[in-house]
Each structure stands twice: as C-alpha cells, then as structure tokens.
Amino acid sequence: MNIPVLSLAPMAGITDWPLRVLCYRMGADYACTEMVSAIGYMCAKPGNRVYQQLLRVHPEETNTAAQLFGKDPVIMGEAAHRLTELGRFTSLDINMGCPARKVTSIGEGSAMLLTPELAYKVMEAVKNNTNLPVTVKTRLGYDENSMNAIELGKAAQTLGLEWICFHGRTREQQYSGTADYEAIARLRSQLSIPVIANGDVFQPEDAKRILQVTGAAGLMIGRGAMGNPWLFRTARQALEGRPTEEPTRAERLKTALTHLEWMVEYKGESQGVLEMRKHLGHYFAGMRGATALRREMNTLKTYQELRDLLASLPLEDCAEEEA
To answer: Best label site of 1, 95, 183, 204, fewest CB within 10 Å?
Structure first.
C-alpha cells in the first residue's frame, strides 16, 4: 500500500462521502470514514440506516478506509472481518485518538493511550481478522502525565501495521493550543513504521512546514478541509514549489451547491439541509457579507430555499472581511 502524502482525516459528523469525494477531486490521496463503533455495528440490526450511511462509499472514491473504534479485541476483530467482507474499503483504520468524553469515558478512543497492553490486543485482533492493510490514529498522550504514544507506535510497528498517524496534541488539550510538531518528529525518529502527521493544517504553507519539521511520510488534513477541499490542491502545489491556485468565488459557489445537492441526496432534505449549514459557514468564511449570509442560511429549512439563496449570490470575487 502506498503511503498517502495528503489525506483527509476522519471527523465525526463531517467526513461523509460528499466531502470525501470533493476532497478526492481536489487531489486527496486517501480518505477515511467517520468513526464506527465496533460494538454498535455488530449489534445493529441488518439494514440499520445509521450504519448504512456511515459505511456508504461513492463510486468516485479511490482509496477510502473504514475507521473502527472500540476496546474489546474480540468485537473489534469481528467488526474488522465484517467490514472487510463488504469489499468497498481499501484499508481499515483504528481510532485511538478521539477525545470526545462520551468515547473516552468508556475507555475507548484516546483513552486507549492509558491501556497500551489492551491497545496492542485490539490492533492484533483487527490485523488478524482482515486481509486489508491496517493503520492506527492516535494522539501524543492522554495528558501531559501519560505521553505514551511511543508505546502504541512500537506496538503498531511490531504487528506490521501500514502506518501510524499522530495528532500533535494530548486528549486533555482537545483542539486547544497548537499542535506539537517537534513531538511528532521525536516519535518518528524512534520508529521504523511510517508516520503520518496531523493537526493544524489550514494553509498550503502549513503542509510544507509540518512535513519539514516532522519528517513525516504524509499529512492528514482535518478541520482545514471544511468548506475548503481546495486545500489539497494548494497544499500539493506548495509542496511541489508551484504557485498556489486559490478558488474563485464562482468556484466556491458552484462547489457549495454541489455539496448541498449531494447532502440532500445522501441524507434526505431535512437532515441534509441541517448538516449542510455547518459546511456552508466555512465555504464563505472571510468573504464580504459572510456573517450576515451565515445568519440567513441558518434560518432556512428546505433545499430549495437554501439553493435559491446560494444561486442568488454574485459570482464575482469580492474583498474579504473577517468571518
């Protein structure tokens, strides 16, 4: 399996197939589903709508992984086997980095950093129950007193996983402060398994700088891709030493309309419109009138209302303002 240079990081409630396809179109090498609870997936009735949505893959997707989380090795292994049998994913990723309280409070996600022996067993179970490449995503530690990501890295290396991705923060930090790239560089220097760096990639120059500092094999872009799938295009241009090609206002509008159409097709009108609001705020951040536009969008409830509003916006580029 080739190590992806630019990947779309998994984000709960965000990285569904509409966003993934837009990022692929802009040059992403790899993407990951939203995280899937192993026990929830195994206990769900056949045809469960939630898991059908979470695990849907669009024909345009070329290198998409399914991401699993859980702390029971047996259940994680069973879920890995079932996901493999679907035949739609190119790899499986294990989530050991989610900082959400509802996940860590039951010992899953980034709480696995507190139980490295169990983390090893979980990785081993997934690896033994699939013929797909297996990867893992984690953080630097649970808090400043448990900076033990190296233990997970060595476990992944021993088990023959394809790569490990480190988000440059602890669970305690959530998304506050700045990602610690020097810490990722130290981890990479102690491991032979390929390392992917994650955290705070918002501008094309960030991609170049982070790869230089960390020496990582690739980057995962998360929040920076929200409303900005072009970040994959501009980041690659920056890495190759070429001028960056930022999207025009017309391109932003056209892509936002496509995203809206896909979301409604995917999740139905009510849910699709509701979820699309969080994306649209990012699409127009920094443009003149963005604040007022966001307020108006948040009052609209139907696809046609939202589509008409977007279609009525001027296509010419305007001066920017603070979002």
So the answer is: 1
Provide the number of structural domains found in the chain. 2
Domain boundary among 218, 239, 260: 239
Residue 79's SS3 state is helix
Return the closest-CA partner of residue 94 out of 162, 179, 28: 162
Copy the structure tokens of residue 117.
Answer: 């022996």
- pLDDT in the model for residue 319: 41
Structural domain for 260, as ranges? 249-311
Tokens linked to 255: 């892509």
Q: State the virtual CA torsion across 85, 87, 267, 14 in degrees, nearest 10.
A: 100
Active site residues: 98
User: What does residue 212 show for φ and ψ, rounded to 5 degrees?
Assistant: -65, -45
Pair type for strands 218-221 and 64-69: unpaired
46: exposed, middle or buried (Cβ count in 10 Å: 0-12, 13-18, 19+): exposed
- pTM for the full predicted model: 0.92
